[in-house]
Predict the structure.
Amino acid sequence: MKVYRLILVLLVLSFPLLGQNIQWLNFYGQPDIKAIAVEADTLWAATAVGLVTMDISTGQEEILTTSNSQIPDNLVRSVTIDSKGVKWISTSSGLASLDGEKWNVYKKTNSPLATNDIKFVTIDQQGNKWIATDIGIFVFDGTNWTVYNTETTKILLSNINALAIDSKGVKWIGTDAGLVKFDGTTWISFDKSNSPIPSNSVQAVAPDIQGNCWIGTSKGMAKFDGTNWTMHTEIGTTGVQAIAFDEQNNLWVGSYSGLIKFDGTNTSVYNVSNSKLPSNSVCCLNFDSRGNKWLGTYYGLARLGNYDFMAYDFSNSGLTNNYIHPIISDAKGNHWICTGGGGLVMFDRENWTAYTTVNSNIPFDNLQDIAIDKDGSIWTGTLTKGAAKFDGTTWTTYGTANSGLPSDFVMSIAIDQQNIKWFATSKGLASFDGNTWKIYDKSSYPQMPNDNCILIKIDRNNAKWICCGGGGLIKLEGDAISLYASSNSGLPDNFVTAMVEDARGNKWFGTRFGLAKIDGSNWHTYNSSNSSLPSDFINALSIDENGVIWAGTDNGLVEIKDEQWKLYDVSNSGIMSNIVSNIYIDTYGNKWLGSPGSGISVFREEGIIMGVEQSPVPAEYMLSQNYPNPFNPRTNIGFSIKNNGYVELKLYNLTGRMVKNIFNGYLNAGPYTMQLDASKLASGIYLYQITSGRYVETKKLILMK
């Protein structure tokens, strides 16, 4: 197993703090790169954990997030640089422009944009910004806006994936419904009904110097000269994601199966088996003036030089995948994290250990759920390879081929008071007592609405609650089954996504259309119309030791305490993603919040407790508050050390990245003052930390230019 040493990331916010208590921590693995822009020696990369800016010559990077900048969301879909050097940043919560240090944010509330979910921006020869969304294109010339959508163009103009402009100013637009051409006057649509295009799912477009448009689709490549179509099967790829031409007019294609180079005759293929490419999924391409090919992949940034690929690591933890599925902790306080492609990750509050199909006998890397039995064994459900048990040494797999499991698609696992394991699968519910399997499906229990069991929870009375996808909720007591559906109960939807039981025995259910509570026989329904829920789609529910309900939605985390509702989202907290897919509350009261692509956010209002023993700080050691504070660009930092020894004084940004080594060396005991020169750093809040032997102390400072 690969073991990672934790770099403890201390995040503070520019809103109210409880002293120096750290309320938020964010952990993420190598992020997938969604878009790349290059300006001189600086590279900009769009990720789901913020906007990365990297000095190409040194490799030093910084990640701009909602905690340290005015970017409207950490889910950055694209970045484009105009002729004046202004960066146009597309996020899931609006469009931002960054001109030097000046930010402007455009949303539905202050512009004609009809949605805040911006996919990308393409800039034409006149400097107009063509802003792509799933509901149309919005053109901004710096003052005026023009809207193109299905209603105004009379063609299907939605779910836009790509937009390129040729030398004549013609716009070529890739959508999920085909290719669209716009010459400034006329709109023409090409799909499988009126052209030989390989697929209606057009993911990438690029004009060449001859005026041809190259089209990348889910089923291959084509070239269109305005009249004739040429299918390029010799390129030999499906699932095209990106297309670009280099200075020698070679065609480069990013796909789900690697990187392809086509010189007009010959094809070269790069993948993880024949190169150091970090992932076969190549999402985006950009070439700099030095001839470097920059690739954004599902597993980080890579550069292709003269010989091979060089990968860049932007992770801050040992997470192997940022798509976080359920989390649980064992009796020792170790956290076990299911991922959607990176296997199982164990975090003991200091070290990270990953179990994948590469380094262990775990059967699959996409894990759907996890539970721990009374013997301390870990049980996981996989997407297509059944269930797996891990006793700390040995992995045992249970599937349709070697057990009574009715399906290898295991969505949810629960363990009851008798230590019986319950599995919700795509072909029914199964129980296993260690020897015997029992199946509950519609053929043997006609009361069940269907066999698609996606969730199982067990209440304090050992009753089993199972969601049958789209068919409602069943309660299983022995062999007796009760059905709850929107037609006979207060459930707002028949697709139940989450469940939790409070101290009074009330059951809370999350659905796609709101939250429901049953307090015996009475139902109470909450949605965005009658409560402070920011979204009706409830992904996760949990309850803390004080009886507070925590709901993870598609638009933030909600705290429900004594009928009072409080929202935490990227605009008012340190949470990394507004989409909260999982919630786990540990024994210290830390909330572990999983996201689909942005890793884990950890939150505790009184200050996060990691449980790692810390030595008491001797009175003779001291780190003083810097002065002046705020400052620009220099400030003084005073400290005292009790004993002679090695001292480190470092400056970190709010993502936990060291941005400056202020001092690193041996000092005799005594008081000292160091000057920090931050002239090359951006305005914002930073952390400075001193380490001397076992003494560690951290304070914040504010750089205000």
